[in-house]
Amino acid sequence: MGEAEKKTVDLAQDRRKQILRAAVEVFAERGFHRTRVSDIARRAGVAYGLIYHYFDSKDHVLNSVFEENWGVFLKVLGDLRDSEELTAPAKLERISALLIDALQVAPSIIQVIIQEISRSDRFVHAEKVSAFTGAFDVVHDIIVAGQAAGDLSPRLDPRVAAYIFFGALETICTGAMLGTIQCKTPEEATRVKATVKEALLQGMLTDKGSEKDAT
């Protein structure tokens, strides 16, 4: 690829990212149904027609927001699962901390994924269900490995525990979006993380896991 061609590709990628960032902001503010393509174009500072150069429709924009951001999240989860340096309890704590930190650094993305995708009729499409359950599968695998290592309680049903884990975190994210849970400052986030660890994660541990966690 020549230098000029590479610059053209880079510019196109940057413009696409610019449109997606603008879409996240507008979807979070107005909701998907009240957002028009012209609203996204205005926020991105591009011509209305340029949106359709990169995306077929408003639905395509939303799907791209989900696929790209959720894909990054799944990659991080997979890397944590495969880590040989961390115990299962430490991996679960890292995942919960990751989502709580995201409320500070990317609150609009969290809001759009929860409100406009996971709780909408778009979620029933097979590819969306598969993408979401991929995250549950990773946590399921972590719990199974933790049970095998003796760190997590054998009384846990790994699948149910994975859903409880993400369900609790989603509820915290919802509370933060509604303003009923304070998680905007590092101090507030630290308090939320500590509460999740004490109220949710500690209940999964065996005595052996608790001893490791204390060290």
Description:
This protein has helices at 3-30, 37-44, 48-54, 58-82, 88-105, 107-118, 126-148, 158-178, 186-201, 207-214. By secondary structure, it is mostly helical. Helix 1 crosses helix 2 (37-44).
List its traits.
mainly alpha, Tetracycline Repressor, domain 2, 2 domains, 10 helices
Q: What is the arithmetic mean of pLDDT?
A: 90
Which architecture of the largest domain would the CATH scheme give at its second level? Answer: Orthogonal Bundle
How much of the sequence lies in strands comes to under 5%
Biggest pleated sheet: none
CATH homologous superfamily caption of the largest domain: Tetracycline Repressor, domain 2
Secondary-structure-based class equals: mainly alpha
The global form is elongated
Give the H and E element order. HHHHHHHHHH
| Total of DSSP H or I helical runs spanning 4+ residues | 10
